Amino acid sequence: MSVNATVTVEVGLGDRAYDILIGSGLLLRAGTEISRRLPGTRAAVVTDDNVAAAHLETLKAGLEKGGIQPAVITLPAGEKTKSFAHLEEVVDGVLAARLERGDVVIALGGGVIGDLAGFAAGIVRRGMNFVQIPTSLLAQVDSSVGGKTGINSARGKNLVGVFHQPKLVLADTEVLDTLPIREFRAGYAELAKYGLIDRPGFFAWLEENWGKVFAGGPERAEAIAEACRAKADVVARDEFETGDRALLNLGHTFGHALEAATRYDSARLVHGEGVAIGMALACRFSSRLNLASPDDAARVETHLRAVGLPWRMADIPGELPDAEALLAFITQDKKVSRGALTFILTRGIGQAFIARDVPASEVLSFLRENHPGRQSRPGPQKSSPGQQKSRPG
Amino acid sequence: MSVNATVTVEVGLGDRAYDILIGSGLLLRAGTEISRRLPGTRAAVVTDDNVAAAHLETLKAGLEKGGIQPAVITLPAGEKTKSFAHLEEVVDGVLAARLERGDVVIALGGGVIGDLAGFAAGIVRRGMNFVQIPTSLLAQVDSSVGGKTGINSARGKNLVGVFHQPKLVLADTEVLDTLPIREFRAGYAELAKYGLIDRPGFFAWLEENWGKVFAGGPERAEAIAEACRAKADVVARDEFETGDRALLNLGHTFGHALEAATRYDSARLVHGEGVAIGMALACRFSSRLNLASPDDAARVETHLRAVGLPWRMADIPGELPDAEALLAFITQDKKVSRGALTFILTRGIGQAFIARDVPASEVLSFLRENHPGRQSRPGPQKSSPGQQKSRPG
Ligand SMILES: NC(=O)c1ccc[n+]([C@@H]2O[C@H](COP(=O)([O-])OP(=O)(O)OC[C@H]3O[C@@H](n4cnc5c(N)ncnc54)[C@H](O)[C@@H]3O)[C@@H](O)[C@H]2O)c1
Ligand SMILES: NC(=O)c1ccc[n+]([C@@H]2O[C@H](COP(=O)([O-])OP(=O)(O)OC[C@H]3O[C@@H](n4cnc5c(N)ncnc54)[C@H](O)[C@@H]3O)[C@@H](O)[C@H]2O)c1
Ligand SMILES: [Zn+2]
Ligand SMILES: [Zn+2]
């Protein structure tokens, strides 16, 4: 495969099917690819400050080649932008550009911009065309694929949104070169996740080739394409998340609790880092429940550490709430029926499954055992004396 | 048919199919009907001040019978409530009640509450269950059926929303007795619309029986049921409004322009009144274009006048902008390609069709001819001297 080859992954969703194109130089082909699929379309580009500075001019040049002169809506970068206020701003901007249902909203940015712009596209005139141009690794391998869009609420993250599939995804692997390395790593956690869910061969390939993925060779496009295939498979089986799609939450139950516990302070923890720690914990927890071998958990931890990702709670700078408080963050957003929780657990690398009956008490003891002990509520611990015993690392 | 019989109309939308129950005393049966379809569900009721004062206690008693104790979210009455700010308020209230995707949002109110609560139900957790309990005649025959939800934007009405079908519609014909007569009449305009679109027999039946529909006999439920059948038919053919469903906009192009021209001041014109005048104008315009007989236009005008509805622009209190300005309101929200507009026109009562090539110039002369002449921009008229000639009435 040459560096410039474009890989196409098809997301098979019947009359909502669409292509993901993966390769370098795609921003410059955007106009051609979009107008081929949506002839005569008009467009609004939604982006953030960082991405606009690095890539907006290139995209505009690319759109121009397809005869598209877009309206541009630029928002502040960061998770806080996924709010009702900014949703209203995007909706208003799209309407101000007098776009119709058949015109297109283009998201140029990471998952924040993709989720927000996709939601706006899903509700303006009850649904407009939408194209994703993901610019972060996380967005290329995860958020841009599958049609989940949304914003955050004071009551929790991603609680408000719609399913709205794009007409096309353009994952330009070159734009990732301007991504801060910490963000690249965070996206890599989600990439590795697909190996852990059901692609053990992919995980082994990543153990071998991750350096080339970071460096930007053809392996980068290949890894992204494999991740998109993995996600597209799950989405095609369960578009509206009534079953299997929950597997994609591997690492996310612990991860979300840690994000909440650090008050979504990205200086301490970004989402993908939370997922990295969460995946390591989910594997370790599975081994503690005698579902998986401790060797598999160790292999996961070793790989995350190798690429520079945090993999245990102790890697989070600053104090963490105690185990009880972490459990409360976990149960907050979940139905707890008769003391049991739903979790994504695993029988080994590439063998994740949905466990619907995990006792909250087991989670609590596990959290105690793995807690780094630097707690934000100092004073005598209510937890068992063995608490620090099996703390890894 | 006895007064208490319940009529069921099924909306045939495959796996999104649902029942509309029409009859008296349905508020008291709400708990039974909802928990039969959604066993074990929890609920939030969204309503407005007026409706809460008249009917909330009855509904709560009815829900109690099905073991449902709802959270209640009460909003100010009126079109202004269909805003981003109130959408956020409803979303937050539903989340505060810790409802899950399988729980239900219940709209108790007119079209404003139905549109807003349905939109909230469509986006909280990317789609929750939704039940409509329409309390205005307009909501019972129109807005509660078909799954269109939404809010207004500074750029125009109903420009933001989703398609989100309810699981059940309960149209309690008794609650209409507290509805102000002017609102009842406004809803009646939408009811008569179905006769004009494609049910000439229904229109003739209404000419005969409208008094009993207003009075509240079994004819009321029968008329509502027929309207729901008519709308359900159109919706089943074209759920996402890509074709035929546009027929439901009969009277709405002129009507919306008049609403905009009176700045949505409900003291001057409510939506159904705008539709009444709009339908009369659409028929008159069709006859002027030699598509329909002037007798049919006269018959429509006579019936609207008989029930006490406005039927011509002169019936709107206060000054109206001139014909050019009205045309600008019409073209504002529509694609005008090469000077031609899409309009719902008719070949006679019950024979409406979508006309895609109506010259804007024809619309303008028609508006001039039918303009009452009390214009908000006084001064010499640019329009033809024949302007007032064929002004009806
Ligand atoms: N919809 C889904 O299915 C789904 C799945 C996973 C995550 N998400 C959401 O995605 C979001 C996280 O996505 P993210 O990590 O991309 O966050 P992000 O969009 O905030 O991007 C991270 C940072 O990188 C910057 N950036 C992005 N691309 C860049 C580039 N090419 N060059 C320089 N800077 C660049 C951004 O400005 C931002 O500061 C979260 O809100 C999460 O909830 C959604
Ligand atoms: N979704 C759709 O397909 C669709 C179709 C048509 C209209 N609509 C929307 O519906 C709205 C108009 O609906 P509406 O006319 O019902 O307006 P509305 O909801 O404002 O109700 C009209 C008035 O009647 C009051 N009211 C309602 N029921 C009552 C009762 N039983 N007793 C006493 N007072 C009562 C309300 O408080 C309000 O003051 C508009 O926003 C329009 O855009 C939507
Ligand atoms: Zn994630
Ligand atoms: Zn209407």
From TrEMBL, chains A, B:
Cofactor(s) recorded in Swiss-Prot or TrEMBL: Co(2+); Zn(2+); NAD(+)
Keywords per UniProt: Amino-acid biosynthesis, Aromatic amino acid biosynthesis, Cobalt, Cytoplasm, Lyase, Metal-binding, NAD, Nucleotide-binding, Zinc
Gene Ontology BP annotations: amino acid biosynthetic process; aromatic amino acid family biosynthetic process; chorismate biosynthetic process
Catalyses which reaction(s): 7-phospho-2-dehydro-3-deoxy-D-arabino-heptonate = 3-dehydroquinate + phosphate
Chief localisation class: cytoplasm
Domain 3-dehydroquinate synthase N-terminal residue range list: 73-185
Pathway info: Metabolic intermediate biosynthesis; chorismate biosynthesis; chorismate from D-erythrose 4-phosphate and phosphoenolpyruvate: step 2/7
CDD domains, per the entry: DHQS (cd08195)
Presence of keyword Lipid metabolism: no
InterPro entries, alphabetized: Dehydroquinate_synthase (IPR050071), DHQ_synth_AroB (IPR016037), DHQ_synth_fam (IPR030963), DHQS/DOIS_N (IPR030960), DHQS_C (IPR056179)
Residues annotated as binding NAD(+): G111, V112, I113, G114, D115, T135, S136, K148, K157
Domain 3-dehydroquinate synthase C-terminal, chain residue ranges per copy: 187-336
GO CC terms: cytoplasm
UniProt-annotated location(s): Cytoplasm
Annotated region described as Disordered, given as residue ranges: 369-393
Start-end of Polar residues biased regions: 381-393
Coiled coil listed as a keyword: no
Note accompanying the cofactor annotation: Binds 1 divalent metal cation per subunit. Can use either Co(2+) or Zn(2+).
Family (UniProt): Belongs to the sugar phosphate cyclases superfamily. Dehydroquinate synthase family.
NCBIfam families: aroB
Name this polypeptide is given: 3-dehydroquinate synthase
